[in-house]
Amino acid sequence: AKAAGKNQISVFHPGLRVEQLDQARITEGLRRALAREEFVLNYQPVVDLATGRIQAVEALLRWWSPEGIMPPDRFIPAAEESGLIVPIGVYALRRACADAARWYERYGIAVTVNVSGRQVHRPEFVSTVLDAMRESGLPGEALILEITETALLAPGKDDMARVIGYLSELRGHGVRVAIDDFGTGYSSLAYLQHLPVDVVKIDGAFTTLGSGTDTASRQRHAFTQAILNLCEVLNLPAIAEKVETSEQKGFLRDMQCPLGQGYLFSKPVPAGDLDLLLADAAAE
Ligand code: C2E
Ligand code: CA
Ligand code: CA
Ligand code: CA
């Protein structure tokens, strides 16, 4: 009965929600995945909107589970819940630094790595990052850590002061901090100037700009413009996420958005494919 599909299992445990079963199964799978090294990083270019040049690449985790490739939106929540995000995050950091060392050396490109709230609160967070840099030879200025504003702000004042301390220490080593999914959390825009932040990533929900004249479209334009104005004042480079069309790119350029990332430029690709992509771009 254990090996049966989740629908059958839920017949035997009518009190248990299918979702919970799913999470438990994923957590068990994650534990094995760590041991078997089933995680892979893909990389997605971050592009200078004015010149088209690749400035950085974002490392995005992929899990080749025995059931097939599992998207992060399905397993990251289970990894956060179980605490497994900590060792998974260490793996991602070390892998990303190791891959990025050659891209930085050859092309001067930085790597941005997602870190979860659970990770940045750990006392060993700073040494984990510094170890990954040392092992790979990647200098601090080639590493950007992406943290969501929720992860930074949610846990309460004392925790936040501690996290800010960790990030400040890393910035002392040249590492930059990007605030991810900006605009979706609860912080006021004014908060930005008090956080140890070097780069702002504007959430894809705002940057899916079109030529529509309905209220929702006009509001998206206005929000994007407001965030970009603020970044300009604070002297923080902004990256627009999920740029899918050249029309969106045009709008963003008109709004003086310096950087973009999205399927228009490239989807996330395996390291070997990025090697080829970068070599091609350099040859042009
Ligand atoms: P995120 O950090 O906001 O990453 C951006 C997501 O948008 C990625 O999804 C990327 O593949 C997707 N994307 C990029 N360009 C486009 C586009 O033009 N259109 C659309 N519709 N989507 C686009 P992905 O790779 O599935 O990752 C989902 C989330 O999982 C990430 O959101 C991040 O929160 C989390 N994640 C991924 N890798 C890691 C990791 O190593 N550590 C942690 N803590 N979280 C990770
Ligand atoms: Ca991200
Ligand atoms: Ca994001
Ligand atoms: Ca996200």
TrEMBL record:
Span of domain EAL: 23-282
Stated name of the protein: Diguanylate cyclase/phosphodiesterase
Gene source species: Planobispora longispora
